[in-house]
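ok, trying the design again with the full structure, not the truncated one.
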């Protein structure tokens, strides 16, 4: 039996996180998935051309909101363009023509539901505010 350190659900080890039914999530090109760690850890769930992609929601350049970016198909390469300075990020790899790298996450469909492999829970609604002073 595999050793258990209790880490599967404590946010330290990536595991499959249920996001919701694919029939619902495929209705919009992008959804923001909230992380309990705060906005810097939020993730975009893109749905483009029948496929789901997950990527850190804050642009690795200066934190722009990639969920609000334009999505384009450039010769079969799907990219999102950051709304702040128009940097491109490949939805599949997270690579940008600028040399920056955006974190991407595996997505799977199982029993008509979407799962994202991530270190923390992900929710379509914000987590209760953490103490901020
Ligand atoms: S913040 Fe995204 S390109 Fe500058």
């Amino acid at each position: 039996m595999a050793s258990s350190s209790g880490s599967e659900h404590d946010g330290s080890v990536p595991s499959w996180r249920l996001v919701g039914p694919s029939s619902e999530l495929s209705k919009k090109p992008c959804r923001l998935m909230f992380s309990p760690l705060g906005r810097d850890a939020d993730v975009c769930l893109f749905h483009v051309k029948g496929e789901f992609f997950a990527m850190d929601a804050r642009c690795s350049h200066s934190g722009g909101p990639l969920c609000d970016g334009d999505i384009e198909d450039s010769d079969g390469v799907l990219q999102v363009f950051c709304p702040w300075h128009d940097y491109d990020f490949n939805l599949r790899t997270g690579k940008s023509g600028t040399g920056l790298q955006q974190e991407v996450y595996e997505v799977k469909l199982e029993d008509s539901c979407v799962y994202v492999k991530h270190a923390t829970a992900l929710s379509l609604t914000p987590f209760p505010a953490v103490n901020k002073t």
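Keeping the full-length input from now on. The radius of gyration is 15 Å.
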